[in-house]
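Hi,

I'm pasting everything inline rather than attaching a file, because the server keeps stripping attachments. The sequence lines come first, and each chain or strand is labelled.
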Amino acid sequence: MDDKVVITGSGLVSSLGSSASDTWEALVSGKHGINALEDFDARGFDCRAAALAQSPDPSELGIHPRDARTMDKHSHMLMKCSQDAFKNSGLDKAPVPAEDIGFFAGMGMFDCNTEDLLTAVKKSLDPQGNMDYDAFFSGAYQEIYPLWPLSMLNNISFCQVAINLDIKGENTVFSAHADSGAQAIAEAVATLIDKKASTVLAGGVSEKVSPLSLARAHLHGILNTSDTDGLAVCRPFGADRKGTVLGEGCGILSLELRSSADRRAAAYSAMITGYGSSCEIEEASYTPTSKAMSGSMSSAIAGTGLKPTDIDVIIANGDGTINSDKNETDAINAVFSECVDKIIIFSSKGALGHLLAGAPAVDVILGIYMLEHGIIPATLNCVPLDKEVKFNVVSKEPLKAHPKRIMINSFSYEGQCSSLIIEAVE
Amino acid sequence: MTVKKKVVITGLGLATPLGLDVEDNWQKLLAGTSGISRIKLPDTAKSPVQAVGEIKESDWTKIQKEFPEEAGQQGEKRTLFALWAARSALGDAGMLSYTGNKDRCGVVFAAGIGINRPEDIQKWISRDGNFDLLRFGRELKTLHRESIARNNSHRAASLIAKKFELRGTNCTITTACASATQALGTGYRAIQRGDADMIVAGGADSMINPIGLVFFVLLKAASVSSENPESVCRPFDRKRSGLVMGEGAGVAILEEESHAKKRGARIIAEVAGYGSTMDAYQVTAPDPKGVGAGRSMLSALKDAGMGDSDIDYINAHGTSTRLNDTAETVAIKRVFKENAYNISVSSSKSMIGHLLAASGGPEFIYTALSVQRDKVHPTVNLTNPDPKCDLDYVPNKMRARTVRAAISNSFGFGGQNASIVVKKYNQDLQDMSEKK
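And the predicted assembly:
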């Protein structure tokens, strides 16, 4: 039999906690992490809520204060999750050569903090308040901290993790939306099967919620901007859904071939067995077409030698936007037509917001908990459901179930769709 | 384990400071023509960086005219460079009129950092000198289309997929200067595994803008020399003073061999191997011993099933920075031992500048042409040999020599390295081995 890729460890940071177990317990007890934005003045924005994670303390992660200055919240989340995945898979004690450890991550769009450039810009202004580039180039630019460019290169935090954990093997960084986190996991799996590495860290991290990231989401038209007086709510598959809410977080998996994990007696309970992808954008809606979503799910199922009826649970992309949820509903109804009343659906975004590049790995980790505990948490705020929904979205109460296989959907706002399949190890 | 599919190159597309045509680029490179000149971007008289490889004004006008819709909506330079190069490559491969299954045709593309525009801050500075978030939130719809908030790194890959209806795997790689080589390598692997029949792979980038111009000056990696712009970029030369930015795109069509043959495509060369490594050394400097860079070449060689006597040409990363060029030299010598001195090594950056995230795109194309045509372009401006750089860098004059196989190297800021091996594709030999 083919060797399978198993998950031997993980690290997770979200608005509901700085560990996988904290996040899981909070989800099962029906908590959410979405709050009014207070980190910066968001009064001018039409969506003023987000699910912010608490930034891990760099000193506890062994990050030098000099490096911490160019590392933003996403770097700290990535560092913490990578260290946690490394440790709880026993890799910190296992004699795996640095050259045999791979690393693949989906990384979001990392924005500059406006204050990083503010002084340089102010010193470049002419009397009318416009940019004077002679002034900028003659010296004003030197007000920019010389290592500021590092914070703009989105592979730098990735390389900082590699230095911290001494990872020297196969690697790449995918960007920028949710699909990228799934691509990283799929590439890691393929790298292990190809025997290009003996163990791989893989996952993704969201960008920090900042004025620019909030602006980007607004401009994409994906946010719930309707609840201006109260707190914006993300309602995956809800009849009243009006948009998504941004979240912060990171998920990193430690992956290895089953034979290799067995050799060193590493514990695991789930394996990654399937992946599919497809790309087609629906004009004007910033959403993949339902055909592309069906394509990614069908190819993951077919590529694994399975039938739709073999999938018990889908952790949906379910981002609470009108168009994406509509297309995903159509796609699930179609692909799973023969078992649509049986398939169980969960979306983490009602509670955690949209973690973008961080979402797929976080959802995989939540999927492992579902396989282990036989519980599917409720999808928050999804009731009343859209009348087109024919599948069983878990609402109100967590559902007791005994899933064997879970599909994780991750879609971008540029047409890319990815579907992963994880399976319980008997 | 399933047998890996063979991956061939069937189309090439370019937009570089040397022009928009692959053949024209190649002839200029062989002649040692530099595309680097004094910066023409407006308002840059005082820029510390004066030598750059810009896409010619007339070429830029041509590209905008070819893609009027995209130019109007999202006329960011790198995105249009990407569209131009992708369409050229698809056309070159005879794929523009393809009627096969486009669910199995994908895009793997490299992207650099988005543009940070000082105006996006200037516009919202309040009277008290702070950034006025309240007003910014209310007015964000007026953000310029080139702002980072509007321009996802995904953009190029997504637009290529949309424009040419490529519905297969679609991803964007962002590993600084290693991006395009990693995109090519990732695309190669996808075809090898059977996940796609055809991949549009490469990259596009431009940082020739105000923040971009000071970006590498702040990091002390850029050359700030302003005399004779065309001679500022001098890889492996004792008087080298830092990288010189270029802009543009390079795209190759990678295709599964039997798929290419079935549709009668002309095969330029074969992709034989790929490897990537990390230095895990420092984020601001390469390992001076070039350990990670060496392992990257070694891993690509191993993937190709080749040894240290099988490579005739290396298209070097060759950035013209003090650290890279010596570290890369040390790495080549460690990997190829005494054979290192029989290998021709040249830097395309000496003539087109450093295309940053896209750099591996055009360099891969030039590598493929070297293999196909048994010619190696020179490293120009190499007039003061550096005793620490003692390989054959093909100084100033092109070389005609047999190139059985070649490596293209890209080493990213931060410490990510990637190498890809291209080898000759011999139709007759292939047919013979199939008959056996």
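The two ends of chain B are 23 Å apart (CA to CA).

If the labels don't parse on your end, tell me and I'll reformat.
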